[in-house]
């Protein structure tokens, strides 16, 4: 964590140009035929494990070659501790380990093989599979390993609750909403997996798995609220058998209707794996045949998430074409010139028709008069556009129209701006998908041991929206949304000078996002908030010149930055942040640029095995394979551009 030597390395223009040219060629080489980008999006072992288990739950014909490749992937990810982690070289995670072990056993791995024995001992030595999270417990219940007493009651009659009730679907996040609706049908009908091989997991428990009751309180939960909700769960469990059958059937019908309105074709419910898998299992228990179109299309959509190589395969949690394309376009626009700007323009032209203009998604429950105008993260997810993607797309469009003098994106930008301004929460911040999703007590229900039931405003998304409004010409004096957003960012700066990063890992990502926003909004670079942030970034630079941060930074007892190996993407964020703060000539920036140049591979991009993005803090992390391809290029091109100008000021929002 040392800043190391204060001397500024000499960075030759010729070598810098060569590095940028190689990285540009590499990024262009990943374009799809129609001009967009989509890179692999890798999570931990849980999604590939769940995919294998889904096939056996459904009783599908075996695919020996595919199972062998996923098995190879899972075995490679096994840690030295014997289990599986949530990130590269991470700590043992009980739920990930249980699922990976179960999946490997299901495809035929001998339980006495060294890797299986090691995994079993690692799980048992930590108290056994009883410590699995709620989602793993639902899976174990459906396979008959544990009983339905081991999971919280999820009455499908929730579909009937009014908005004023303490629990309502529109009081939880989009991802929780789409996951829980088909899961409620499964919980109501309590299906049993086909499991033709009758594979069990008794050896992972220190007690009879059929005797296991409700999960314990999670660390983030309040004892008082947890006990209250656990008591409600007990009451519901007692009376659930007496719920009127006609009412239950009606509620199930509403759940199916909710799902079928949001299926997105092969992109699936919510366009993310868990609700897609739950939907297929739901149709099975409801008796719909395999060729029933919604079931068949969703099942095909799940297979589209597979990444199949020569020796390994895995299942992605979703795909990220809008995000990847918009960020790639920003990097190329920063590079400039005939080799980069036309491909960026083509990418933006691909993005333009993906804007959601004719459908009001779930967000409209709290903003019924607001016109739609956002972009989603995936190819198709019209009910759930997000503000982060939308702001990044708008800033790319604005940069393109500045360069060409064209007005072709004006209407798209105006609609997106209207939507983003209308989605601001009452505290001045912006969330990813929803507005005023502030019912924090819901993270204390037994189902929420993951602590990710909500989508509240966050520093990184707020910063992106502030950046967008500022780039479009607004100021704190002319725009109340912008002024309120800036006030939110000032309030949320930590004493050490950093900002939290919800969707990227972690304080480096948040600080990059906010410094870009503060610069775009016109704050003086000597503003105390900016100086504190700069000092913090410089203090956490590694001795090799790079920056790094890992999942430990999301610990509930976080007490300050802990050193982690440098990565290309996190180094790029730190560099972009420092340059936004006016530090292009600093020794820290020069060392960071030298780190990127020295770690660039012969293919023109950077190799990055570590996870630098976040799905849900402490629960689910992501490795965007594109991050090490466009962020370093962006940072190097920005450095070259600023060193070539007199103002040394970043004139765009990010």
UniProtKB/TrEMBL annotation:
One of the Pfam families matching this protein, by short name: SQHop_cyclase_C
Instruction: Write out the GO MF terms.
Output: lyase activity; squalene-hopene cyclase activity
> Where do the Squalene cyclase C-terminal domain residues begin and end?
319-641
Q: Does the keyword Isomerase apply?
A: yes
Pathway noted in the entry: Secondary metabolite biosynthesis; hopanoid biosynthesis
Q: Which Gene3D superfamilies match?
A: 1.50.10.20
Q: What is this protein called?
A: Squalene-hopene/tetraprenyl-beta-curcumene cyclase
Family affiliation: Belongs to the terpene cyclase/mutase family.
Q: Where is the Squalene cyclase N-terminal domain?
A: 20-308
Q: Which PROSITE patterns match?
A: TERPENE_SYNTHASES
Q: Provide a GO biological process annotation.
A: triterpenoid biosynthetic process
């Amino acid at each position: 964590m040392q800043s190391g030597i204060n001397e500024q390395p000499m960075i030759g223009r010729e070598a810098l140009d060569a590095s940028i040219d190689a990285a540009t060629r590499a990024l262009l080489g990943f374009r799809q035929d129609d001009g967009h980008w989509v890179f692999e999006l890798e999570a931990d072992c849980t999604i590939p494990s769940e995919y294998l288990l889904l096939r056996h739950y459904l009783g599908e014909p075996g695919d020996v070659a595919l199972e062998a490749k996923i098995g190879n992937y899972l075995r490679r990810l096994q840690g030295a501790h014997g289990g599986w982690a949530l990130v590269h070289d991470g700590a043992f995670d009980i739920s990930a380990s249980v699922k990976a072990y179960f999946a490997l056993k299901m495809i035929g791995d001998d339980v006495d093989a060294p890797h299986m024995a090691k995994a079993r001992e690692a799980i048992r030595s930590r108290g056994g599979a009883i410590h699995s999270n709620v989602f793993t417990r639902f899976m174990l219940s459906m396979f008959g390993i544990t009983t339905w007493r081991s999971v919280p009651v999820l009455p499908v009659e929730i579909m009937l609750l009014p908005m004023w009730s303490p629990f309502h679907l529109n009081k939880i996040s989009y991802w929780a909403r789409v996951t829980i609706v088909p899961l409620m049908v499964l919980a109501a009908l309590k299906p049993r997996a086909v499991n033709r091989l009758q594979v069990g997991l008794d050896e992972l428990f220190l007690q009879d798995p059929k005797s296991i009751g409700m999960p314990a309180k999670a660390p983030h939960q309040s004892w008082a609220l947890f006990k209250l909700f656990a008591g409600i769960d007990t009451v519901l469990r007692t009376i659930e058998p007496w719920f009127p059958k006609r009412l239950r059937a009606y509620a199930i019908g509403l759940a199916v209707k909710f799902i079928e309105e949001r299926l997105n074709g092969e992109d699936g419910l919510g366009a993310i794996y868990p609700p897609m898998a739950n939907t297929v299992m739901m149709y099975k228990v409801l008796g719909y045949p395999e060729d029933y179109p919604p079931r068949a299309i969703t099942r095909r959509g799940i297979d589209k998430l597979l990444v199949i190589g020569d020796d390994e395969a895995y299942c992605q949690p979703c795909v990220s074409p809008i995000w990847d394309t918009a960020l790639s376009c920003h990097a190329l626009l920063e590079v400039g010139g005939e080799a980069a700007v036309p491909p960026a323009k083509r990418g933006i032209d691909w993005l333009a028709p993906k804007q959601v203009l004719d459908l009001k998604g779930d967000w409209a429950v709290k903003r019924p008069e607001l016109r739609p105008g956002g972009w989603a993260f995936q190819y198709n997810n019209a009910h759930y556009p997000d503000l982060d993607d939308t702001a990044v797309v708008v800033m790319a469009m604005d940069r393109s129209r500045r360069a060409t003098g064209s007005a072709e994106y004006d209407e798209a930008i105006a609609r997106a701006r209207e939507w983003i301004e209308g989605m601001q929460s009452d505290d001045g911040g912006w969330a990813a998908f929803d507005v005023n999703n502030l019912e924090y007590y819901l993270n204390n229900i037994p189902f929420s041991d993951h602590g990710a039931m909500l989508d509240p405003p966050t520093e990184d998304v707020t910063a992106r929206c502030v950046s967008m409004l500022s780039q479009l010409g607004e100021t704190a004096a002319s725009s109340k949304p912008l002024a309120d957003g800036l006030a939110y960012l000032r309030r949320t700066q930590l004493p050490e000078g950093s900002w939290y990063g919800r969707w990227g890992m972690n304080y480096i990502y948040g600080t990059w996002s906010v410094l870009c926003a503060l610069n775009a909004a016109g704050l003086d670079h000597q503003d105390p908030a900016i100086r504190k942030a700069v000092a913090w970034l410089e203090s956490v630079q590694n001795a090799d010149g790079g920056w790094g941060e890992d999942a430990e930074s999301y610990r509930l007892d976080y007490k300050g930055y802990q050193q982690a190996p440098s990565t290309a993407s996190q180094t790029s964020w730190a560099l972009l942040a420092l340059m936004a703060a006016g530090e292009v000539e600093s020794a820290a920036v020069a060392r960071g640029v030298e780190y990127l140049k020295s770690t660039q591979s012969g293919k023109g991009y950077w190799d990055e095995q570590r996870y630098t993005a976040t799905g849900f803090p402490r629960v689910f992390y992501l490795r965007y394979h594109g991050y090490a391809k466009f962020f370093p290029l962006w940072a190097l091109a920005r450095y070259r551009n600023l060193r070539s100008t007199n103002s040394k000021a970043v004139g765009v929002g990010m």
